[in-house]
Amino acid sequence: MRLYKNIIWLVIISASATLLFGSCTKLADKNYTEILSDQFTPGAKDLVSLTGPAYGAWRNVLNYGGSNFFRTQEVTADELVITARPYGWVDDGSYRRLHEHSWTNTDGTGGNWTSAYGGITNCNRLIFQIESGAVPVASGKDSVLAEIRALRASFYYVLCDLYGNVPIVTRFDVAAGFLADQNTRQQVYDFIIKELNESLPLLNSQSNRLYYGRFNKWAAYALLAKIYLNAQVYTGTQQW
Fold it and tell me: How far apart, in whole angstroms, are the C-alpha atoms of residue 99 and residue 74?
């Protein structure tokens, strides 16, 4: 009798387990923690989120915690001097070498290169994704692309100003191990001018809080003015 009852309970437990685990495969799992790419069609209102990683590279370019655009420009000029103190700031003489124009490749002169090309890579990725349809932009596509191109030009301005001859890379879909050819400073200058002039008519002219910190028409004009003011240094021919 006890054996019979045990068999009945075993059958009940097995049947319940079958129903329980079988029903789990029919659950409609709704994702609440992330946006799935196949369920997301971005529009103009999503521009800030789309371009965030590319703009984020400027934080590294301007961050004073190490190699950055401001330090590299100003410590090597006469506006800023970082003096040694009894309790530190000698840093193996790196600041002194920058001030004396005797720096080496170990004095933090490469961080701007890495940060700027990181921003350029993100810009190229966004342009590729938008133009290929991988990231469909429902509205304002031309304006989005113009903003990204202007942003990319700003990173090339950093490279042109600090390094001169640098590779111009505009594609994201390149083969593994791709190594770009070096361009002259004149070519980099011409590229920046072309990108800004072609982007300007498509850039937004608003200057409200939605465009704070972003490349609108006026930011592009400001960058263009800086490029023209320094044209004689970059190309040997003044443009003012």
Answer: 9
Tokens of 99: 């001030």
- DSSP code of 64? -
- Note whether 72 and 109 are within 8 A (CB): yes
Does the pTM surpass 0.85? The reply is no
Domain residue ranges of the chain, discontinuous segments joined by +: 43-60+113-240, 68-109
Closest by alpha carbon to 43, among 148, 111, 135, 153? Answer: 135
- 3-state DSSP call for residue 30? coil
Query: What would the pLDDT profile of 178-226 be if each residue is shown by its tens digit?
Result: 888 999 999 999 999 999 999 999 998 887 887 788 899 999 999 999 9
How many Cβ atoms are within 10 Å of 227's Cβ, its own excluded?
Answer: 20
What CATH code would you report for 43-60+113-240?
Answer: 1.25.40.390
pLDDT digits (tens, 9 = 90+) for 46-57: 667 778 888 988
Is 161 within 8 Å of 180 (Cβ atoms)? no
What tokens does 151 get?
A: 């942003």
Q: Which of 147, 136, 151, 150 is nearest to 43 (CA)?
A: 136
Using CA atoms, how far residue 51 sits from 106, 151, 177, 189, in Å, is 32, 10, 26, 24
